[in-house]
């Protein structure tokens, strides 16, 4: 009706009436059975992770008296940080009762030397293998590739002997060095593949301009490695922080990382189990990698998807 | 004293020989263009000179120094790459500065040279930008700047203009030529673009299949191509080639085409006395034809039918059917416009401009 009147008015005004070509209105999205199914599935998936997390978090704030009541989903009657304090300062690992903070600082002092050692070595090796004229580079690369697949358990005993003879067994340094060594093959391959994509002409130009291995590495290559560094950092931080086997094997009594402390604390078999303490301890151990994810997670995605280096 | 000389250069990749016993000497101040189709070995030769590849055999001299075993940075060369190869994380200033990385100059001299280069190439406002913030032409300037800041005697260019659009290419061509005149340095320039070669070079080395087919000035290469490859490669539209046999009668020499048409080539500067009955290939440049009938001596007259006419701005190319093949002629555009397809048109060729090649060896006779 309105269409007609518009064209009449247009005709009256001496204009040519415009007939619009028929177009299709995009259908409004209603709630279809399919979308309900998807929603239900996703909700179940989310609950699968969230419910245990909820229980862990609320339990860690409860008093032992409330936990004994057994209602695990209720919120704490009295919010208390007692469990967190206990886990951090007084929890017992073996015969020592200095809390998780010992393990936390151990883990930190394992993490940094290990990160620096493994990443710097892998970067230089990857650069040399990818862009420098190295004799036997192909064979070396193949060897690295094989090494990346050797399970740790197989070389565990030789490594213990090696660390014992070098007198570092049972210290934080042993754990840090072993982490760095074991990560080398994979990290080197990652860096090598990344550097392989740097245009050859840039390397040729650098060869003609400077020709110095270290100068090219530090001035040209390292600044171009931002993306891959983020990826490797996250990989390594998570790996090292969450490791248990290497820590328990090489840490001895004084060099135990936080994960080993946590296990000792939770698997204690005498007396009553204090669930609040255990939950708080578990959460404390999980926080550092989470913080790293939140801080650099966005950069991580960029790093993983960044393919080309454009000039 | 040649600035650069290649002596008996051999380059093999495994069992494949790319260059075999190549010799070439470039005089001081020359602008040498290595010209050839893709895969002819021109870039390989340049990389050998730069030291980015190692020779399998032979010797490379720069001035009086044998540089065959030297590292790229020690050869006293500067190179401009096809993709510019600017360091993406460095600013323009950083890129220029890194060009001097091997030279260990005092900081104030480095600053002075950066200012000099920036002024010469008009990139002063760009000094603090990253390569990603520059246009193609600006990147090209920076790449050239990174080379000339070294103040070396020999500059290498590896197809530096092929990533630019047509207009910029013409501008940069003139600019590089101007720089060469100003700096009076020796240039080795690789390209597959014959216009770049013809306009910029003082010497052209035409390469094919790893062999230097001809080495000479642009005029020599164009006017007197040494063989069929050079004749066909240089010039657009390409030179018209026709088979014929020589007919010698006293002092008169004529080329007889397969159709029986004759071309008097008595004036042709034969390198050896012409042999009667020798099968030859006649090369005729499109611009050496004239339309219309004017029977003067030494011109050959044909009347082939018109196939098509193409206008390319300032002039036009006329395609005729001659000896069952296409014959390209360069004519004035207004002349081409009046011709109908299928009609015949009288055409003369200035016989003195012909190029004769031995049909068997492909060499100029």
Automatic annotation (TrEMBL), chain A:
Annotated GO biological process: transmembrane transport
PROSITE patterns noted in UniProt: ABC_TM1 (PS50928)
Pfam families with a match to the protein in the record: BPD_transp_1 (PF00528)
Bilayer topology term: Multi-pass membrane protein
Gene Ontology terms: cellular component: plasma membrane
Top-rank lineage group of the source organism: Bacteria
Annotated ABC transmembrane type-1 domain residues: 104-296
Keywords: Membrane, Transmembrane, Transmembrane helix, Transport
Spans through the membrane: 36-57, 110-132, 139-160, 172-195, 216-238, 244-263, 275-296
Presence of the UniProt keyword Membrane in the record: yes
Chief location category: membrane
Subcellular location: Cell membrane
Entry keyword Membrane: yes
Protein family per UniProt: Belongs to the binding-protein-dependent transport system permease family.
Name this protein carries in UniProt: ABC transporter permease subunit
TrEMBL record, chain B:
Superkingdom in the source lineage: Bacteria
GO CC annotations on file: ATP-binding cassette (ABC) transporter complex, substrate-binding subunit-containing
Name recorded for this polypeptide: ATP-binding cassette domain-containing protein
Gene Ontology terms, MF aspect: ABC-type transporter activity; ATP binding; ATP hydrolysis activity
Source organism of the structure: Devosia marina
Compartmental location: Cell inner membrane
Presence of the UniProt keyword Transport in the record: yes
PANTHER family: ABC TRANSPORTER ATP-BINDING PROTEIN, MALTODEXTRIN IMPORT ATP-BINDING PROTEIN MSMX
């Amino acid at each position: 009706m309105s269409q007609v009147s518009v064209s009449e008015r247009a005709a009256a005004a001496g204009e040519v009436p415009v007939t619009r070509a028929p177009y299709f209105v995009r259908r409004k999205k209603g709630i279809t059975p399919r979308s309900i199914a998807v929603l239900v599935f996703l909700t179940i998936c989310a609950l699968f992770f969230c419910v245990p997390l909820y229980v862990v978090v609320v339990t860690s704030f409860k008093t032992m008296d409330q936990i004994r009541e057994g209602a695990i989903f209720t919120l704490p009657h009295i919010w208390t940080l007692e469990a967190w304090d206990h886990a951090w300062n007084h929890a017992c690992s073996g015969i020592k009762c200095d809390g998780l903070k010992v393990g936390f600082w151990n883990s930190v002092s394992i993490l940094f030397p290990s990160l620096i050692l493994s990443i710097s070595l892998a970067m230089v090796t990857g650069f040399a293998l990818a862009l420098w004229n190295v004799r036997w580079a192909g064979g070396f690369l193949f060897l690295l590739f094989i090494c990346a697949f050797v399970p740790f358990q197989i070389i565990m005993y030789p490594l213990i002997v090696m660390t014992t003879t070098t007198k570092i067994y049972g210290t934080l340094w042993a754990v840090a060095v072993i982490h760095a060594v074991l990560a080398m093959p994979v990290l080197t391959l990652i860096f090598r593949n990344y550097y392989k994509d740097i245009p050859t002409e840039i390397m040729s130009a650098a060869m003609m301009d400077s020709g110095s291995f270290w100068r090219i590495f530090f001035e040209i290559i390292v600044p171009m490695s931002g993306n891959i560094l983020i990826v490797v950092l996250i990989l390594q931080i998570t790996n090292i922080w969450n490791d248990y086997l290497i820590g328990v094997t090489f840490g001895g009594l004084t060099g135990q990382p936080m994960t080993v402390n946590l296990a000792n604390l939770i698997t204690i078999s005498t007396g009553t189990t204090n669930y609040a303490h255990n939950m708080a301890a578990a959460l404390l151990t999980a926080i550092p990698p989470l913080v790293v994810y939140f801080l650099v997670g966005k950069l991580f995605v960029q790093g993983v998807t960044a393919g080309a280096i454009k000039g | 004293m040649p600035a650069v000389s290649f002596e008996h250069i051999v380059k093999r990749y495994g069992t494949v020989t790319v260059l075999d016993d190549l010799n070439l000497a470039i005089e001081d101040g020359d602008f040498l263009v290595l010209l050839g189709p893709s895969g002819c070995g021109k870039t390989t030769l340049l990389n050998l000179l730069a030291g980015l590849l190692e020779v399998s055999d032979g010797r490379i001299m720069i001035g009086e120094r044998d540089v065959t075993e030297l590292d790229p940075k020690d050869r006293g060369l500067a190179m401009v790459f096809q993709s510019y190869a600017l360091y993406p994380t460095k600013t323009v200033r950083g890129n220029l500065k890194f060009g001097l990385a091997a030279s260990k100059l005092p900081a104030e001299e480095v600053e002075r040279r950066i200012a000099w280069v920036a002024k010469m190439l008009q990139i002063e406002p760009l000094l603090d930008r990253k390569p990603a913030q520059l246009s193609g032409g600006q990147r090209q300037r920076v790449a050239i700047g990174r080379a000339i800041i070294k103040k070396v005697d020999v500059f290498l260019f590896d197809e530096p203009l092929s990533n630019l659009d047509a207009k910029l290419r013409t501008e940069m061509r003139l600019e590089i030529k101007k720089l060469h005149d100003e700096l009076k340095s020796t240039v080795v320039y690789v390209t597959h673009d014959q216009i770049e070669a013809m306009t910029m070079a003082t010497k052209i080395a035409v390469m094919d299949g790893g062999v230097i087919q001809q080495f000479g000035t642009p005029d020599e290469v164009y006017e007197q191509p040494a063989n069929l490859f050079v004749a066909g490669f240089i010039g657009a539209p390409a030179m018209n080639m026709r088979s014929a046999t020589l007919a010698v009668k006293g002092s008169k020499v004529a080329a007889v085409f397969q159709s029986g048409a004759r071309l008097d080539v008595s004036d042709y500067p034969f390198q050896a006395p012409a042999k009667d009955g020798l099968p030859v290939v006649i090369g005729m440049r499109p611009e050496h034809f004239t339309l219309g009938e004017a029977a003067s001596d030494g011109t050959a007259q044909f009347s082939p039918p018109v196939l098509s006419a193409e206008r390319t701005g300032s002039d036009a190319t006329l395609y005729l059917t001659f000896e069952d093949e296409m014959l390209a002629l360069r004519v004035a555009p207004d002349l081409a416009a009046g011709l109908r397809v299928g009609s015949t048109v009288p055409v003369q060729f200035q016989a003195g401009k012909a190029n004769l090649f031995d049909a068997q060896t492909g060499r100029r006779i």
